[in-house]
Amino acid sequence: MDRETEQSLSTVASVQLGVLLAFVGGFQDAYSFIGLGGVFANAQTGNVVLLAVEAARDHWAEAGRHVPPLLAFVVGVVVAETLRRPRVADAIRWPARAALVLEIIVLTVAGFLPPAVPDSVVVVMIAFTASVQVSTFRTLITWTYNTAMVTGNLRTAAQAVYVAVADRDADAARKARSFAIVIVSFVIGAFTGGWLTLHLGEHAIWIAAGVLTGALGLFVVDERRGQWGRRFRRNAGRLGRS
Q: How many CB atoms are located within 10 Å of the residue 4 CB?
C-alpha cells in the first residue's frame, strides 16, 4: 500500500470526518421529520415502527408514506457497494470522495425543488444519500460506527467508558472520547437542522450539502499535507547525504 493510499484511508476513518458526517446525519433526520411530514430519512428503524403502527391502526395511506424511504435506503446501499467494487473503484480512483460528491449533488438539487414537489420525493432523495453515507463510511479510526444513527454509537461509547474505568484501559478511553465526540456532533446537527428548517424551510438542506463539501475538502487537505510531508522527508534525506 503506497503512502497516498494510506493517507486516503486515514482520512476516511478520521474523527474529523466522522464529526462532519454525524452532524449531517442528525441534520437530515431533523430536517425530514420537521419539514417533510414526520418521516425519518436516516433512521429506518423509526420508519419500520411507524409503518407497523399505522398499519395496525388500518391507516394504510399513512403506513405507505414510510415505504419509499426504506426502498431508497436499499438502493443507496446498492450504489455504495457498487462504488466499492474493484473495477468501479479503479475507474473512479476515489470511491469515498465520489460518494460525498453524489451526496452533495443530490442534497443541493433537493434544496432547489419547488414547493409543489411532494415531500415524499425529497424524503426519498435524503434517504438515498443517508444510505450511501452509512454504507461508505463505516470505520472510526479502527472501530465500526454509524454516521446517521446514534443507538449503536451510544452503546459502544457506554461500553468503552465502562472498560476504561474498570480496567484503566487507555485504548478504551480513547474509544469512548472518539464516540462521544461523534454523538455530540449528531445531537448538534439535529438541533441545527431542526432550527434551520423552522426558519429557512426546504433550503435548509443546503447547509448539510455545505458541511459535506467541507468533509470532501478534508481529503484534499490531508492529501496535500501528505505530499508536503513526503517532499520534506526527501529534502531532509538529501541534506543528510550531502
A: 12
Q: Spell out the domain ranges in the chain.
A: 12-140+147-234
DSSP result, 136-199: H--EETTEE--SS-SHHHHHHHHHHHHHHHHH--HHHHHHHHHHHHHHHHHHHHHHHHHHHHHH
> In Å, how far are 33, 41, 76, 148, 202 from 38, measured between CA atoms?
4, 10, 21, 17, 14
Does residue 50 sit in helix, strand or coil? helix
**pTM, 2 dp:** 0.85
Q: In this structure, what C-alpha cell is assigned to residue 44?
A: 429506518
User: Closest Cα partner for 207 from 99, 76, 107?
Assistant: 107
Residue type present at position 206: W
Q: Which residue has the cell 473495477?
A: 87
State the CATH architecture for 12-140+147-234. Answer: Up-down Bundle (1.20)
Q: What is the pLDDT along the chain (242 residues), one digit of tens a residue?
A: 434 443 445 889 999 999 999 999 999 999 988 988 877 777 788 788 888 998 999 999 888 888 888 999 999 999 999 998 888 888 888 889 999 999 999 999 999 999 889 988 998 999 999 999 999 999 999 999 999 889 999 999 999 999 999 999 999 999 999 999 999 999 999 999 999 999 999 899 999 999 999 999 998 887 766 555 455 455 545 555 55
Q: Which residues contact 36 (CB under 8 A, 6 or more apart)?
A: 119, 122, 123, 126
